[in-house]
């Protein structure tokens, strides 16, 4: 099995465009490229990771001849991605959303073909616990008499198949970015990685983990990391949804008391254990910096992208745009992964 699922089934995600933004580059004082993940079938990067988990399950030889039903817990984007991926691959998907989920997103999930949308719990963690410990468990008991049916839990961010799928974003990036000019004083064989920095929003950390896995695959094909600058990842959150920054401050994996940010799709009370590990001890050639902005910063990023590029995104994306364009970085080339 390759680093993503078998190609025998059609991938439920697409290769998205990478565009250079003159307006954002001028504001930041460096070249900024935008990876248009909003063009994914689900409207977000979640199509990659969630799609890869579902594709991997369907490609598993042990599931041959079985009917798979997928179950997702999500405040929105992950659930929508799960429903669309399952539908496009000929399977069914049930989604449990917290009571705080927006009506518009619930309608989208239903319209995409969800078998059922269940509202439960004040937060994603409560919705997720109900799905795993009660709903799926009851379904498993009912399915014991039917060996040809299997119920599969699809977490929104904490699964290796999800990280592998998210890492395909880096596979595309290295093909799409323009090659770097040689550096004065370096030998002609010097081949630096095509980006100095990657800016990404962090909720539970699935995208961040995927980007790091992707860099681990590709960095060895460039100049040895001992001879070039580290690729810097800016892991961006909003205050009130800053579970990564909170765990870093505490020195261990710790949940925040509550999500109070308006960027609700960043609203994981706790990041994945692997996310904290990746930030505290990144692989060779990678440096990770945690940045926390405000909801106002995120809103300004949304407005900036709408005004300058006619692109409409949510707050979870706007915060990364604002960080990338508002002087938090002073590098020569920046790559932003956005929803």
Automatic annotation (TrEMBL):
Compartments, as annotated in UniProt: Cytoplasm
Pfam family, one: PALP
Enzyme class, broadest EC rank: lyase
Cofactor: pyridoxal 5'-phosphate
Keyword rRNA-binding: no
GO MF term set: L-serine ammonia-lyase activity; pyridoxal phosphate binding; threonine deaminase activity
Predominant subcellular localization, coarse grouping: cytoplasm
Keyword Lyase: yes
Keyword tags: Cytoplasm, Gluconeogenesis, Lyase, Pyridoxal phosphate
PROSITE patterns the UniProt entry points to: DEHYDRATASE_SER_THR (PS00165)
PANTHER family in alphabetical order: CATABOLIC L-SERINE_THREONINE DEHYDRATASE (PTHR48078:SF2), THREONINE DEHYDRATASE, MITOCHONDRIAL-RELATED (PTHR48078)
UniProt record similarity statement: Belongs to the serine/threonine dehydratase family.
Protein name stated in the entry: L-serine ammonia-lyase
Species this chain originates from: Penicillium nordicum
């Amino acid at each position: 099995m390759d680093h993503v699922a078998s190609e025998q089934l059609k991938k439920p995600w697409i290769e998205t465009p990478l565009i250079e933004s003159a307006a954002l580059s001028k504001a930041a004082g460096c070249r900024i490229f935008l990876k248009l993940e909003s063009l994914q079938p689900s409207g977000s990067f979640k199509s990659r990771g969630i799609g890869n988990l579902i594709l991997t399950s369907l490609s598993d030889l042990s599931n041959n001849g079985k009917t798979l039903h997928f179950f997702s817990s999500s405040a929105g984007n992950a659930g929508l991605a799960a429903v669309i991926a399952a539908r496009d691959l000929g399977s069914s998907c049930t989604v449990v959303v917290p009571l705080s989920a927006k009506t518009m997103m619930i309608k989208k999930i239903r319209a995409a073909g969800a078998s059922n949308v269940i509202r439960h719990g004040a937060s994603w963690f409560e919705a997720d616990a109900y799905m795993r410990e009660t709903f799926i468990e009851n379904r498993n008991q009912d399915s014991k008499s039917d060996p040809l049916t299997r119920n599969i839990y699809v977490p929104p961010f904490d699964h290796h198949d999800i990280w592998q799928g998210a890492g395909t974003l880096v596979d595309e990036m290295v093909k799409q970015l323009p090659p770097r000019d040689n550096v004065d004083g370096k030998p002609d064989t010097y081949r630096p990685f095509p980006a100095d920095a990657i800016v990404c929003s962090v909720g539970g950390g699935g995208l961040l983990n995927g980007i790091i896995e992707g860099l681990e695959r590709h960095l060895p094909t460039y100049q040895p990391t001992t001879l070039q600058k580290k690729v810097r990842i800016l892991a961006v959150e909003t205050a009130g949804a800053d579970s990564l920054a909170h765990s870093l401050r505490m020195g261990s994996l710790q949940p925040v008391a509550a999500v109070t940010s308006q960027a609700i799709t960043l609203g994981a009370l706790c990041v994945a254990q692997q996310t904290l590990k990746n930030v505290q001890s990144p692989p060779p050639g990678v440096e990770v910096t945690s940045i926390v902005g405000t909801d106002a910063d995120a809103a300004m990023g949304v407005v900036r992208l709408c005004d300058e590029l006619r692109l409409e995104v949510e707050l979870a994306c706007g915060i990364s745009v604002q960080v990338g364009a508002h002087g938090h970085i002073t590098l020569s080339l920046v790559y932003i992964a956005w929803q």
